[in-house]
Write a structure and sequence with these properties.
261 residues; Methyltransferase; 9 helices; Rossmann fold; single chain; S-adenosyl-L-methionine; alpha/beta; disordered N terminus; 7-stranded mixed β-sheet; 7 strands
Length: 261
């Protein structure tokens, strides 16, 4: 079994700089929670696409249901699952947050230990409804892993590009967009995200900014494994530095882990 998982990890490949910090935190949590329960986790990955989150979790031995509206993405997911020998642990389902109720079997709510909502809350029609639906499919003591785009770094990036009106709009508009031509449907502030979670009965247990530097450093400056490791270590220190808590607000995205009852 250990040899099979090692081969699967090699096939899955290392996470990219943009996702490594989230994957690291998620993998550590999943391993810890699995040890507490004495079994692999039942995971629901909403908007999981081609399996960037699901495949590493399945390689680690967890059972992952991936819900995504795109049949092309799910086809790619099936190929990745086959390449990593995880097809038996990955279950693709076409749908979205509005179809969560269909995951229930026999009229009973599905009971997942972990729900991943990474880069999806920004694009759903109704974030409140999405959170309410997620709450119904989590097992008692279950955890939500939420990754959302942040407002402040987007405004900073527009200002540095000389797009001052767009930067101001991002700061002032409730949805954090610069206008109708902004490709991002929604951006969040940390307090708004935490309030939304609490409204739906979640208790945030960890919240930190991600990609504080990774989106700014030119790729030419990260051309070795040593450079990559050093940048990731810098990201980890900056996102959790007790003396400089505002650094987390500069991360392109925020990663929150929250439990429910």
């Amino acid at each position: 079994m250990a040899d099979e998982r090692a081969r699967s990890r090699r096939a899955a490949g290392p996470p990219g700089l943009r996702t490594a910090a989230v994957h690291g935190a998620l993998d550590a949590f999943a391993a810890r929670r699995s040890a507490e329960l004495g079994r692999p986790l039942r995971v629901l990955d909403l908007g999981g696409g081609t399996g960037g989150t699901a495949v590493p979790l399945a390689v680690a031995g967890h059972d992952v249901t991936v819900v995504d509206p795109s049949p092309d993405a799910l086809a790619s997911l099936r190929r990745r699952a086959a390449e990593t020998d995880t097809s038996q642990r990955i279950h693709p389902v076409q749908g979205d947050t509005d179809t969560l109720g269909e995951l229930a079997a026999g009229g009973e709510p599905a009971a997942y230990d972990l729900v991943c909502l990474h880069g999806t809350l920004e694009v759903v029609d109704d974030p409140d409804a999405a959170m309410a639906g997620i709450a119904t499919v989590l097992a008692p003591g279950g955890t939500l892993s939420l990754v959302v785009a942040q407002r402040l770094p987007a405004a900073l990036a527009r200002a540095l590009a000389g797009q001052f009106a767009r930067a101001q709009a991002i700061l002032e508009r409730p949805d954090g967009r610069w206008g109708d031509d902004d490709p991002a449907p929604r951006r969040f502030d940390e307090n708004v995200v935490l309030d939304l979670l609490r409204t739906h009965g979640f208790t945030p247990v960890d919240s930190h900014g991600v990609r504080i530097f990774s989106d700014l450093v030119p790729s030419a400056l990260v051309d070795s494994e040593a450079d990559r490791a050093a940048l990731l270590e810098l990201e980890e220190v900056a996102s959790r530095h007790l003396d400089h808590p505002l650094l987390g607000g500069l991360g392109s995205v925020r990663h929150v882990l929250a439990t429910r009852g």
